[in-house]
Design a protein that fits this description.
5 domains; 725 residues; binds zinc ion; 6-stranded parallel beta sheet; binds adenosine-5'-diphosphate; Rossmann fold; globular; 30 strands; alpha/beta
């Protein structure tokens, strides 16, 4: 090929579903995956070269590539393949897919220099100090204790709750010193418990097929030892000098998890989470691409980590909604993980106590292998679950007499209690007692939540804030009062009622940043009696072994949602929250307050357990050809003027003949029709056959880009939507 006349086809981050041609510099090898700086519509953009070819017109008329960024570090071919697949499957412009895949810093020319990772080491002076003598400085003591075993990366210390402040103080005393993480000697992994029969069988099932694509659903109740299975399988993978990728819903909230992996695996491990800066993320990507990392643990976007020596992919809490990206490229990290494993010909393990109906269905139809951990190891027992009928006699503060009594009892016996309420803020409603006015968001079909700490009304949907009015804007009365209970109010109430123990609130308002949560964990892990009040943040995979009582204050609204997945999600949440109790030998109690004690969901979930309930739901879905037995896509449109969104969806419906197998519903308003000042509508597509739906979506989505009404509305196509119909 004449190198003077080579064009590269570039994926650019623009909402156009095609590649763009540029002249390739003659002096550089033509590597697909190269990141390039080019001019597009008078802007400078960074894109990724997917292909090379010969020009179809005079090469001199084709715009040149301005710069090839890090020519020695192209995006590896397997990731390009994944990008092509995702673009086709999700019907999304390839350039935006490529951009979603890369850490921000690698999509810039003026890339901040990757920062070498730092670690901390005890000096000889530090070794001479007895940590036990530091009774008045518990953080410093904890830092010294952690470092006695081995030098640790700053990030690992941070996850363990040791802030950089503490380290600086110790450095001032000359007890610790900074070293480059590259010099960390690999420590010996610590041994884990000997596996139960069920665990060993699951590990054997995974490791028997390490050399080929084999998806496995690991279904194990909370605390049954799924993580031990991952650890054992990953160790096997490390012995073979292969890399493991672990995807979790929220690593920032689970410092214990990353620390457990570090201690148990040895090897070179990196954790990717939202608390990392761009340079660190980029550095992890580069290290992984060069094969310098053995294990990468991260949230959703970690599914795009390069793996030159791929061995195993694990998706923990595979049912969790946060694995699905809800804007831009609407991808499911779980589904992409399975697709990636297929392309790389390696095993993938999907683990959960409450698997998604999709994965259960795949296991039932034989697409996935299946392993079950039916029991907690050792003496740990499952909690006893009781329904509390609160019809007609629930006091204003929202806690029944039984719940208060149980709290009294468990706390006085030295237990810890967890009170779950999925609603943050002080009160969900601010109401005028004189005329009935309520505070509503101007931009959304929603009420504003009252937050007492800063005396503000806040919309949880668009983020709008305003001062709390002292007088009713409608009638001028001063009787404007908060109605209902959120976590802020509940925590205050409980603190007054149980003043002898600390009450910790855990929600997005109180837990900002990783250290806040780690600090809290440190406090709770001392085992002292306390009450934890929080939203579903509490239900997410964090172990508080001292918790003997779990109270679910209000689950009722979830029972009557319009979303067809509401039952499944409620069952998952109930099971996950209940699973927080009785992690230790003492067993535990779960109390569920409800106005609908006869609701069949309670009966079924509590009596038969989540697994059986989920299988019943699948039978129901089968009849209606709903997911997982049928396949779904959602075309959403939003605009400042409702007609603009409507007109776009009407045009979309008419632009291609819809095959008879595809059912089309709508246009209909989205569950919250107006949000952040925009009207939102949607079209739902349903088809029993995935292939047929895919074929239609592909040609359809292409014509959507050409619709002239598309310019007046924001629109997106969501393949396998997870919420809101
Ligand atoms: P899961 O991931 O299913 O929630 P974990 O792997 O975190 O469960 O295990 C729950 C608890 O049980 C942990 O404290 C773990 O150390 C312990 N554990 C797991 N497997 C065993 C085993 N085979 N023997 C003893 N303890 C175990
Ligand atoms: Zn009023
Ligand atoms: Zn709003």
């Amino acid at each position: 090929m004449n190198a003077d006349a080579l064009v590269c086809r570039v994926a650019l981050p623009v909402p156009v579903p095609r590649l763009f041609d540029y002249r390739w510099p003659t002096d550089l090898p033509a590597n697909p995956g190269s990141r390039v700086l080019v001019t597009f519509a008078n802007r400078k953009l960074v894109g990724v070269v997917l292909e090379f070819g010969l020009p179809s017109i005079d090469i001199a008329r084709i715009k040149p590539v301005h710069q090839v960024i890090d020519p020695a570090l192209p995006v590896p071919e397997p990731l390009l393949e994944l990008a092509r697949w995702a673009a086709a499957y999700y019907c999304h412009p390839i350039g935006e897919v490529a951009a979603t895949m890369l850490p921000t810093a690698l999509r810039r020319v003026d890339r901040p220099q990757p920062r070498p990772r730092l670690a901390w080491n005890l000096t000889s002076a530090g070794r001479a100090v007895d940590p036990g003598s530091l009774t008045r400085a518990p953080r410093q003591r904890q830092a010294l204790e952690s470092l006695t075993r081995r030098p640790m990366e700053s990030d690992a210390l941070l996850s363990a709750g040791v802030s950089s402040d503490v380290l600086r103080r110790l450095a001032d005393k000359g007890w610790v010193e900074r070293i480059s993480a590259a010099n960390l000697s690999e420590h010996q992994p610590t041994a884990g418990p000997s596996l139960t029969e069920a665990q060993a069988a699951a590990v054997a099932q995974i490791t028997a097929k390490l050399e080929r694509f084999s998806p496995l659903l690991l279904e194990g109740i909370t605390g049954s030892g799924k993580t031990e299975v991952y650890l054992a399988a990953i160790r096997r993978c490390l012995e073979l000098d292969r890399q493991a990728l672990v995807i979790v819903p929220e690593i920032g909230l689970t410092p214990q998890l990353s620390e457990r992996f570090r201690q148990r695996l040895g090897g070179r491990l990196a954790v990717v989470h939202s608390g990392l800066g761009d340079p660190e993320r980029a550095q992890t990507w580069v290290d992984a691409a060069r094969g310098r990392l053995d294990v990468v643990i991260g949230t959703r976007s970690a599914v795009f980590t390069p793996l030159p020596r791929p061995g195993l992919i694990v998706v923990d809490e595979e049912h969790d909604l946060s694995l699905k990206q809800q804007d831009g490229l609407h991808y499911s990290a779980r589904d992409l993980a399975v697709q990636r494993a297929k392309m790389l010909d390696i095993p993938v393990v999907l683990g959960s106590a409450t698997p998604s109906l999709e994965s259960i269905h795949n296991a039932e139809t034989g697409k996935y292998d299946h392993a079950v951990l039916p029991r907690r190891p050792g003496a740990a027992r499952l909690p006893e679950v009781r329904l509390i009928d609160v019809r007609g006699h629930l006091p204003e503060h929202g806690l029944s007499g039984e719940v208060l009594q149980a709290l009294d009892q468990h706390l006085s016996q030295g237990g810890q209690a967890l009170v779950f309420l999925n609603r943050r803020g002080f009160a969900p409603v601010l109401i005028c007692n004189a005329c009935g006015w309520t505070a509503e968001c101007r931009r959304c079909d929603a009420r504003m939540t009252f937050h007492q700490a800063d005396d503000q009304l806040r919309c949880h949907h668009c983020g709008m804030e305003q001062k709390r009015p002292t007088l009713c804007p409608d009638c001028g009365s001063s009787r404007v009062i908060p109605l209902g209970v959120g976590t802020e109010r509940l925590a205050a109430l409980l603190q007054r009622r149980f003043s002898q123990v600390p009450v910790h609130r855990i929600d997005r308002d109180t837990v900002r940043g990783r250290t806040a949560f780690a600090d809290l964990v440190t406090k709770v892990m001392t085992g002292q009696p306390c009450i934890l009040v929080g939203t579903q943040m509490l239900a997410k995979g964090h172990d508080f072994p001292g918790v003997t009582l779990v109270c679910v204050v209000n689950i009722d609204q979830a029972l009557f949602s319009s979303d067809f997945r509401a039952t499944e999600r409620t069952a998952q949440l109930l099971t996950q929250v209940s699973g927080r109790a009785g992690r230790n030998d003492a067993g535990g109690t779960v109390l569920l307050q409800t106005h609908h004690p006869d609701h069949p969901l309670f009966e079924q979930v509590l009596r038969t357990g989540y697994g059986r309930f989920a299988r019943l739901l699948i039978r129901e879905r089968q009849a209606a050809a709903f997911p997982p037995c049928g396949h779904m896509a959602l075309l959403r449109a939003e605009a400042l003027k409702k007609q603009d969104a409507e007109r776009f969806l009407d045009a979309a419906m008419g632009c291609l003949p819809v095959p008879p197998e595809v059912d089309l519903y709508g246009p209909m308003p989205s569950p919250m029709e107006r949000r952040a000042g925009r009207y939102r509508l949607q079209l739902l597509l349903l088809c029993p056959d995935r292939g047929k739906l895919q074929r239609f979506l592909r040609s359809w989505s292409k014509s959507l880009f050409d619709l002239k009404d598309a310019r007046r509305a924001r629109w997106s196509l969501d393949v396998d939507p997870q919420d809101s119909i």
